[in-house]
Automatic annotation (TrEMBL):
Keywords: Cell membrane, Membrane, Transmembrane, Transmembrane helix. The chain crosses the membrane at residues 7-31, 43-64, 76-94, 100-117, 138-166, 172-195, 202-224, 230-247. It comes from Calothrix parietina FACHB-288. Belongs to the 4-toluene sulfonate uptake permease (TSUP) (TC 2.A.102) family. PANTHER family: MEMBRANE TRANSPORTER PROTEIN MJ0441-RELATED, MEMBRANE TRANSPORTER PROTEIN YJNA-RELATED. The keyword Cell inner membrane does not apply. This is Probable membrane transporter protein. It is found in: Cell membrane; Membrane. It is a multi-pass membrane protein.
């Protein structure tokens, strides 16, 4: 990869990190771009996870001391995320991720529909205590999404943000801040496992990670300046666009596969 390609890749990662602090789904942009630049799939996932760790740290810094993260839930949420991420990272070594884009695109469409139906969720601060079943569901979803977060991460924070808004009744800014903090551990644990396997491109990871760290700080600062209404608008817009692109790409891949099978002689 030459200098021009690295600069272009860094610019894409920087832009994606600013927006994804609010909307998530960084990896649905960055991993495909890395593949287009000729990076091997597992190396792309592992190096991207390394960069995401730095972005999450940068994205969390602006929220520190702003009282938008509930410390009572953090210990259990963090533990569930760490365990789930370990399992997910190990799955990268043995399972293909071809089916993930379709699953995530469908999930984001569901998120968008539910958000439109319950349009006040995350916008109007809720003083009501979430029902016990919703609280438990929030922890279960954290663990399940933690597995996915360690496996691929594309759409992980997007879905986690929606879950915390709907189940824990957080505002958008609270959910964004909480998921940024949790994603530090999700990305870090997965990165450690990838480093042990030797599939992280250190040089590229440091360059991209540094740009995403700066982008994360900018994105976090912008989040604090925007109202929950605008955070919801940005979130839903990005979710709708990424869901459409991912679903369209998945359908194209399926059509290509069907065409290959049609013209391949039977054994």
């Amino acid at each position: 990869m030459d200098i021009l390609q690295i600069i272009l890749l860094g610019g894409i990662f920087f832009s994606a990190s600013i927006v994804s602090v609010i909307a998530g789904s960084t990896s649905l942009i960055t991993v495909p771009v890395m593949l287009e630049f000729g990076v091997e799939p597992r190396t792309a996932i592992a190096t991207n996870m390394f960069a995401l760790t730095l972005m999450s740290i940068g994205g969390t810094l602006p929220f520190i001391g702003k009282k938008v993260i509930n410390p009572q839930r953090l210990p259990l949420l963090t533990l569930l995320t760490i365990v789930g991420s370990c399992l997910g990272a190990l799955l990268v070594l043995i399972l293909p991720s071809k089916s993930m884009p379709l699953i995530i695109s469908l999930s984001m469409i569901i998120v968008a529909i539910l958000s439109v139906i319950n349009r006040h969720a995350g916008v109007t601060p809720s003083t009501a205590i979430p029902p016990r079943i919703a609280e438990i569901a929030g922890y279960v979803v954290t663990f399940i999404l933690g597995i996915y977060g360690g496996f691929f991460s594309g759409g992980y924070v997007t879905l986690l943000t929606a879950a915390y808004i709907m189940l824990f009744r957080m505002s958008f800014v609270e959910a964004i801040a909480t998921t940024k903090f949790i994603n530090i551990f999700s990305s870090l644990i997965a990165t450690i496992i990838f480093l042990q396997q030797g599939i992280v491109d250190y040089n590229l990871g440091i360059i991209l990670g540094t740009t995403m760290f700066i982008g994360g700080i900018i994105g976090g600062s912008l989040t604090l300046k925007l109202s929950n209404v605008w955070l919801q608008r940005i979130y839903l817009t990005v979710v709708a666009i990424l869901a459409f692109i991912t679903l369209r790409k998945s359908q194209t891949q399926n059509q290509s596969t069907s065409a290959i099978e049609l013209f391949t002689p039977s054994a």
